[in-house]
């Protein structure tokens, strides 16, 4: 593995890429509601995601002292640094924002750490996607608004619902790719209804995602245009998703959608 491959491995498997996706969604919220860049919120979202995802992915390996990945030391150092940086950002947040962050942080911990004989929340059949969607929606929509002292009104909750739907849609693409590897006890959507019906469900959810924009008090033409592009792009990713696809189909390309979405919004606003 050469230097470029090692760096790319760390970028993907060290959860930097997914953290960039979360950060992009925070920036989207800022852009939509006219918020200034907030280093504490942005830093907590980014570094908290790096640590949180690495903790979820590798906690069991560390607890059982089993080897994981090709760059264990680098990912461990990255995770520890992210924990420290995320904690520093947490203490810079307002009190109400800290409570909001703590709520979703507890969900993330229970998602990874066994809380009963049945295991963690991730092992509970059918509940995984909702927990992840709640956490993403909370961190990328509610936290920036709460920290800015804005009232969580009609448009805020519609934005949360839209973000919640998007995360579920993206996770379903992951579940299609991973159907042959996921534990049958997880009862993922593709395991329960099959790949074809999951794709149809995803396309239906995309229509709901798109329709939410028209329910907001303020509807901006450039957002409609951007959302149209995003819906078509995600629909293509859904249609062409198969269990035979490379892991990087989701780990890189699908998780790039929030970054691409934010880039489109910025360009369309010029």
From TrEMBL:
Where, by residue number, does the polypeptide cross the bilayer?
Answer: 7-28, 40-56, 77-95, 101-117, 129-154, 160-179, 200-217, 223-241, 248-267
The answer on whether this UniProt entry bears the keyword Transmembrane helix reads yes
Q: Which UniProt keywords apply?
A: Membrane, Transmembrane, Transmembrane helix
Presence of keyword Transmembrane helix: yes
Official protein name in the record: Prenyltransferase
């Amino acid at each position: 593995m050469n230097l470029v491959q090692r760096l790319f491995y760390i970028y993907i498997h060290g959860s930097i890429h997914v953290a960039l996706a979360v950060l992009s969604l925070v920036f989207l919220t800022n852009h939509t509601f006219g918020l200034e860049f907030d280093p504490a919120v942005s830093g907590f979202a980014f570094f908290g995601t790096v640590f949180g995802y690495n903790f979820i992915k590798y906690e069991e390996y560390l607890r059982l002292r089993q080897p994981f990945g090709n760059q264990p030391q680098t990912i461990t150092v990255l995770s520890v640094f992210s924990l420290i940086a995320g904690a520093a950002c947490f203490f810079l947040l307002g009190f109400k924002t800290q409570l909001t962050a703590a709520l979703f942080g507890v969900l993330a911990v229970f998602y990874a750490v066994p809380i009963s004989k049945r295991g963690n929340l991730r092992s509970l059949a059918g509940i995984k996607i909702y927990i992840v969607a709640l956490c993403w929606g909370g961190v990328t929509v509610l936290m920036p608004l709460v920290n800015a002292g804005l009232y969580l009104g009609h448009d805020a909750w519609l934005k949360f619902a839209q973000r919640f739907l998007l995360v579920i849609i993206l996770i379903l693409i992951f579940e299609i790719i991973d159907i042959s590897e996921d534990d049958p006890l997880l009862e993922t959507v593709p395991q329960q209804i099959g790949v074809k019906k999951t794709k149809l469900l995803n396309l239906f959810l995309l229509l709901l995602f798109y329709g939410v924009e028209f329910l907001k008090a303020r509807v901006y033409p450039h957002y409609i245009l951007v959302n149209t592009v995003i819906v078509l792009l995600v629909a293509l990713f859904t249609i062409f998703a198969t269990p035979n696809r490379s892991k990087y189909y989701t780990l890189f390309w699908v998780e790039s959608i929030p970054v691409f979405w934010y880039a489109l919004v910025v360009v369309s606003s010029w």
